[in-house]
Design brief:
With 439 residues, the protein is an alpha/beta fold. It is built from 12 helices and 19 strands.
């Protein structure tokens, strides 16, 4: 009876963790969307239109804040046709800590006492113009500095503010945090409203009501012009068979729509409003100049070459508290790979074992035949319905360089999101898994 109870408790803890992870992924997207809107808005204003300063003078006046910033960023550039970024830290790699915080109980202070429900460490390599992203589960069980004992990692900010949050990350992972960006939960709504809404194609009917959470979603299939609140509802919808993957796909559509609108000339007049929202709901130790330079770097980054990972571990229930217990060895592997960029050099002679997961046997067979033609050993296949295609590396020898080399030989697997996950849940003893989406 005890064993059955223990298994039942572990199962319940795991389910709760996965539910919380879904919410965490939603916040992850909101942080990225909010910050990227500001970054791309800045870069569009400061770099793309840098040769048209008269536009800003005529639109906002020569003494306006945005006009002065654009003039300052462009006046020392003697060759505007070859505008490039000059990062404040030079060419060394940098770690930027992105934090998404929940609502504060203090109406006069949006940040004090808030928990960081989203924690993402971004590693930027200016020399190679590449970006890696490490997601840190908010329930990770860690030691808090200054004798604050054991707690969830998301409590660090609530107890000791941004300095404790940064130091906890540094002590836990053995890394250095160069800069931080915190985004409040309300940022997406306000930014979309500042842009007078966005156009989205809703892929299916979405209906859901949570009266206790004041969440009401009611969309029909088809084209919609969403205001800020509706954009948040679109992002938060998760009551479908695809769960987290379906929501991730919708978040990507929303982001594409936002970035597309930012490029429209009519959006330029909204930049002061976007900056105003950023001042209220985005907190950072970066200067405006530094943000514009990071934005310039993002313009050069190939989004298909970004490596992402989540700190590996397992759920654990202690009383009424659920923790994510980090796997020390696997965590070190992920940190070495994503943050320190430790990886094997590309060896085209190596033969790896592959796994293929797809929604139907036909799509699996096509990829399987293509891999075998390229002398790749397909060790296992399986049915898995997803809308987000991925190339998941389980071995440190399987790098992004290897994937790019392989995708040139096997055109069926080009353009997949690259994920590093040393824990292989799919096919057991394989070096990588290719996930083929329904689309």
């Amino acid at each position: 009876m005890t064993n059955k109870t223990t298994r039942r408790e572990r199962s319940a803890a795991f389910v709760r963790h996965m539910q919380e992870t879904r919410e965490e992924s939603s916040s992850f997207a909101k942080v990225f969307i909010g910050v990227l809107i500001v970054f791309f808005g800045l870069i569009f204003a400061a770099l793309v239109l840098s040769n048209n300063n008269s536009f800003f003078v005529e639109t906002f006046g020569k003494d306006a804040f945005i006009t002065k910033v654009v003039n300052k960023l462009t006046q020392n550039n003697p060759n505007k046709e070859h505008a490039d970024f000059v990062l404040p830290f030079g060419l060394r790699r940098q770690n930027i800590l992105f934090l998404g915080v929940d609502a504060s109980e203090n109406p006069d202070d949006l940040w004090s006492g808030t928990r960081t429900d989203t924690i993402i460490l971004i590693n930027i390599d200016p020399r190679n113009k590449s970006v890696n992203a490490l997601s840190i589960p908010r329930d990770s069980k860690v030691y808090l500095p200054s004798n604050n004992g054991v707690n969830k990692i998301n409590a660090a900010h609530a107890i000791g503010g941004i300095e404790m949050a940064k130091r906890t990350i540094e002590d836990t992972l053995g890394v250095h945090v160069d800069r931080y960006v915190m985004v409040h939960d309300k940022a997406v709504k306000e930014i979309v409203d500042a842009m007078d809404g966005i156009d989205i194609y809703v892929e299916k009917p979405m209906h859901y009501n949570d009266y206790s959470g004041h969440l009401h979603i009611n969309f029909t299939k088809g084209e919609h012009h969403l205001d800020g609140q509706q954009a948040v509802e679109y992002l938060r919808f998760r009551h479908d068979a695809l769960g987290d993957i379906g929501r991730t796909h919708r978040q990507q559509w929303l982001l594409r729509s936002l970035l597309s609108k930012i490029k429209q000339p009519s959006t330029i007049t909204k930049i002061p409003d976007i900056i105003s929202v950023a001042k209220k709901y985005v907190k950072t130790d970066m200067s405006f100049y530094e943000m514009s330079q990071y934005a310039a770097l993002l313009k050069h980054v190939d989004m298909d070459k970004i490596e992402i990972a989540t700190l590996p571990g397992s759920p654990n229930q202690k009383g009424y508290i659920s923790y994510w217990i980090l796997d020390p060895e696997k965590t070190q592997e992920v940190v070495n790979r994503i943050i320190y960029r430790d990886k094997e050099h590309l060896d085209e002679t190596m033969v790896f074992n592959a796994g293929i997961m797809g929604s139907n046997n036909n799509s699996i067979k096509i990829v399987e035949n293509a891999l075998k033609t390229a002398n790749i050993n397909v060790k296992c296949t399986g049915i898995l319905s997803k809308t987000h295609s991925q190339f998941v590396a389980h071995s440190n020898k399987v790098t992004n360089d290897y994937y790019n080399w392989l995708s040139k030989k096997v055109e069926n697997i080009g353009g997949l999101q690259f994920v590093y996950d040393p824990v292989n849940y799919y096919c057991g003893e394989t070096d990588f898994t290719i996930i083929i989406s329904d689309n």
